[in-house]
Write a structure and sequence with these properties.
It contains five helices and 14 strands. With about 270 residues, it is α+β, with helices and mostly antiparallel strands. It has a single domain, classed as Ribosomal Protein S5, domain 2, CATH 3.30.230. Helix 2 packs across helix 3. It is elongated and about 65 Å long.
């Protein structure tokens, strides 16, 4: 799916900047404030794990499917994680049908990289028979209503769906029975939470709406662990960032990441 860019007029952008200078955003939030967030688990009866994340008028669903397959030759004793993202036209008129666009590819890669580089789970635990059979874990992320911040909300949805996932039953002949799930979970050792910090003029803000995203001069997505370690980084936007910008963004992302992780832990009961 491709995205038709929303273009903001300069007059509207200046109005937005004046609001930020007064310490308030168009929707009344502070610059460092997320929209009210909710996470719901088990929203799909056909997926091995699923979750729905809502923030304001943005809603993102993630589903996990598991299957047995042959491992990659260079990692014969390790399972495989794949994250895909699809921008559904039903979620916003700006999204058009077609092959994956740069936005959906970026969302999937940033979420995937955060989980993979954090070593969130032991890939070797997904091995059934070295060189022959491993579990393939696929996580699909898609908005069902879009009003900005898909990377952060998609990342949270992916983590929640992985925490919700249960392995399907495997018969004696090696056939996967998707109608019956076991009690075995995907044991996540880390929760790499992505937080995107946007810059408009000299102002930094989190959880941008669609309108705010169209006004961003630059953005930085930081995926961090509970101890503050950084495991993924993605720069967006045309304008450069100074060293002071990056330091402030890292600090802000660390603070917001703690809040989002606490919400995730509360919902999943970890």
């Amino acid at each position: 799916m491709t995205k038709v860019p929303l273009v903001m007029s300069q007059d509207r952008k200046q109005h937005l900047i004046k609001s930020l200078e007064a310490g308030v955003r168009i929707d009344g939030r502070k610059k460092d404030e997320f929209r009210p967030l909710s996470i719901e688990l088990g929203v799909s009866s056909t997926a091995e794990g699923s979750a729905l994340v809502r923030a304001g008028d943005s809603s993102v669903i993630a589903g996990v499917k598991m299957g047995l397959g042959k491992p990659y030759p260079d990692t014969p004793d390790s399972g495989v994680l794949m994250v895909n993202a699809e921008l559904l036209p039903l979620s916003n008129p700006e999204f058009e049908s077609g092959p994956p666009g740069i936005e959906s590819i970026e969302i999937a890669r940033v979420i995937d990289r955060g989980i993979r580089e954090s070593h969130a789970f032991d890939a070797k635990s997904l091995c059934v028979e070295p060189g022959e059979s491993v579990w393939m874990v696929q996580c699909d992320v898609m908005p069902i209503n879009f009003d900005g911040n898909l990377i952060d909300l998609g990342g949270l949805a992916a983590l929640a769906a992985l925490l919700d996932a249960r392995f399907p039953m495997v018969g004696g002949d090696g056939t996967v029975d998707y109608h019956e799930r076991t009690d075995r979970k995907l044991e996540l050792e880390q929760l790499p939470v992505p937080v995107t910090v946007g810059k408009i003029g000299k102002h930094l803000l989190v959880d941008p709406t669609q309108e705010e995203e169209s006004a961003l001069d630059a953005r930085l997505t930081l995926t961090m662990l509970a101890n503050g370690d950084l495991c993924a980084l993605q720069k967006g936007g045309d304008e450069p960032l100074t060293r002071d910008d990056i330091k402030a963004m890292v600090s802000l992302a660390g603070e917001k990441g703690k809040e989002l992780r606490a919400k995730l832990l509360e919902v999943t009961g970890r």
